[in-house]
Amino acid sequence: MGDIRQSLLPRDVLSAAKELLYHLDIYICNLVQSGRQPPQVDSKTQELVEEFILHAPKDRNTPARRMSALQELQLLEIMCSCFQEQSRDTVRQLMFSALFSLQGNQADESRMVLLGKLVSMAIAVGRVPILECAASWLQRTHRVYCVRLAQVLVDDYCSLVPGSGPTLQNIHSASPRFCCQFITAVTTLYDLTTEELTPPLELLQMIVSWIQDDPRLVLINFLNTPLSGNHPISSLDVTPLGGLMRWCVKAPLAYKGDKKQALTNSSTERGREVGPLFSALHLSVLQVLMLLPNILNEKGLYGRLALLQMESLASLTSDLSRLLDQADKHAPSTDTRALPQLALDRLAQALQVSMANGALLCSREDLRAICSRLPHNNLLQLVLSGPVMYYNNIHSPAMAFSPHAAHSPIASHPTHPPLPTHPPLPTHPSSHPQYPAQPFMTGMSFPFRPSH
């Protein structure tokens, strides 16, 4: 394609960009049809993209070409149409890669700006092919740039334009794969350490409703992607489960601004809204974890692939320890007195259900080491001391079972008589009657061994 440069130079910026997109489409179609593996856009084509679409000057003596706001809008519309009209997904993905794969040069900033505007427009006008290409881009790109794209979309649909949230809401049904990657990116972006890094209320409501409507949504990338053991550490996580768990555990102790206002069911209007949302999100995350044994067994990955990483868990417990120390320095009010225990209870529940369902692969000793700085919590103590329990139904008294039992020849041919049953242990009155029992823990007795 290098020979078309001379024909593009006399054209105005919009006409040149449109013409190059046309030739790029033809070039990639021919590349795919040739059967070359892997199909790869050559460096000369990349240089044309940078010069005539991203407007990076070819050399220092060449003035940069600039588009007006109207021309830029027209270019975005042309690109939307181009991807919509191309029926072959392989061609679309290669075109998207040629336009937006980061090259480590000065044109990358222009790539990111144009990408943010294109994906935002694709959400607004429902261009699913672009959203699918963007999902692949999020999967293979360094997380630093992924969160930048997520920030642009949150600003466009949750901050800058009031009432535009329902448009973003629709990506749940339009492109579940992009929606899953978007959730992973925003949970990476917002870590609840500052007011700026706390998810906007509208975004939180949206994510909760998405997962409640379809719990498998957060597993779509995992279900549809061939996984290897060398997942790049710089990429986004395979699922947003770790980020969502971090939100739920830290939320009761996350403070706002200088007033250190907790995100809880306090007397404030925001507290009344946010508290139940994080509770609903926590339950949804546990329900998603309950889906994993069958899925991991089907893929032959049970006990071999951890969807939650120990490094991420260690970072969470470290953050939680710091937040608990901060909470101790402030005289607790009636509304905030129970917050430390709520955060620790959620951590304990998440750890137990994660281990029981194969999402977290570690020993009790590893868990005790990671949680050693945390204050005592009855439920967390049970998790750190007792055996792994497998939960069959999150809404009813839990039954102990092994996800491997149905696939084990030993299970189908028992050689020992069943052990006699024992009467249940007597229940003890709760030392904290103000805390209602979690539904999925009701009726379950744990062997307790005090830690030394």
Kindly describe this structure.
- With 452 residues, the chain is mainly alpha-helical.
- The chain contains 21 helices and two strands.
- It has a two-stranded antiparallel sheet.
- Helix 2 crosses helix 5 and helix 6 packs across helix 7.
- The longest helix has 22 residues, at 269-290.
- The N and C termini lie far apart (71 Å).
- The model is unreliable at 256-268, 389-420 and 425-452 (pLDDT under 50).
- InterPro entries: INTS15.
- It holds the Pfam family INTS15.
- Residues 415-427 have a biased composition (Pro residues).
Q: What is the helix tally? A: 21
Strand content: under 5%
H-E order:
HHHHHHHHHHHHHHEEHHHHHHH
Uncertain ranges: 256-268, 389-420, 425-452
Number of strands: 2
Return Rg in Å: 26 Å
The class by helix and strand makeup works out as mainly alpha
N- to C-terminal separation?
Answer: 71 Å
Mean pLDDT: 81
Shape: elongated
Approximate helicity band: 55-70%
Q: How are the strands of the biggest sheet laid out side by side?
A: 1-2
Give the biggest sheet.
2 strands, antiparallel
Region (Disordered): 405-436
Biased composition (Pro residues): 415-427
InterPro entries: INTS15
Pfam families: INTS15 (PF14964)
Properties at a glance:
mainly alpha, 55% helix, disordered C terminus, elongated, INTS15, 452 residues
Topology record:
Layout: H1 5-8, H2 13-33, H3 43-52, H4 69-85, H5 89-100, H6 107-125, H7 128-140, H8 143-160, H9 165-169, H10 171-174, H11 176-189, H12 201-213, H13 220-224, H14 241-250, E1 255-256, E2 261-262, H15 269-290, H16 292-298, H17 310-328, H18 339-356, H19 364-370, H20 378-385, H21 409-412
Antiparallel strand pairs: 1-2
Helix pairs in contact: 2-3, 2-4, 2-5, 4-6, 5-7, 6-7, 6-8, 7-11, 8-11, 12-15, 14-15, 14-17, 14-18, 15-18, 18-20
InterPro entries: INTS15
Biased composition (Pro residues): 415-427
Region (Disordered): 405-436
